[in-house]
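Worked example

This section walks through a single chain of length 289. The input is the sequence exactly as stored; nothing has been trimmed or padded.
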Amino acid sequence: MTLEFLIALAQLFDAYFRRLPFSKHEPEDLQKKIFVISAAWCVASIFLYEKFFANFGVNAATYKSIVMLGWLPYFLIALGLSGWRWLQNFFVLGMAAIFALTQHTLATSIVINNFGGTFDIIFFEATIYLLLFAISFPLSKNFFVKLLPSREFFDLRPQGIYIALLPLIIVSAHMILIADDVLIHSWEERLSRIFLPPVFFFFYRYILSAAKNFYDMQRLERNKILLEEKLSELKDYNALIEENRTRISVMRHDLRHSYNIIYTLLQNGETDKALEFIRAQKNFLEEKK
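Given that input, the structure is written out below as tokens.
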């Protein structure tokens, strides 16, 4: 049962890494719930794997089938409980698969030079995989915690879909090539899998850079819209000021003209006409109300 334990533990650790990118976005109670259920499945899977190996034997085909499909229950548990969007989960799944494939390839490359039997190679491959996992844990954890771009980036259509599925598509191509009953592939094939993470790392940095540029452009676009709205408001305000200035100028002219008329009538002693003019102006102003 030792081999089954190693495989189940490795799959639980892989599931833990896949939850790290969401740790900042999920309540602590939810994270604990996902871990407890995943741990329970890990224990149950040990007995399932033991029965599977007992019925079909320990060989390349059975080992690969468990490794390649064992992530699915953990993925469904986390997805069902967290309710996170599919695109983010598929993106993280693809990145984690690239990480795991590389470590499995490194473990296999170390083992084949020291062990010859099928069971020995599989057993020590699983052991070394866990050792590599432990050695790389600090750096890998830091990487996965910061792995996930903003949700807005995945909301882009269709770019968000392409970016979310690209890691999974790339790693699936490699998985298809090794989904056979061959335990040890050629060094050229193993070398291509080892170089996969560095290549994809640069691509991922491009994704983050593109996301940052996108957010900057979105922010600039929003600022531009706000500035245009403010400019429009200022133009309307200036137009209103000019209109009021024109009205005040007309009113001053009318008042000056009215005062001149009243002054002239009073100066000529025509008091009745002055009073009549004043009454007419008063009635005119009351009608304008």
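What to look for: The CA atoms of residues 54 and 259 lie 116 Å apart.
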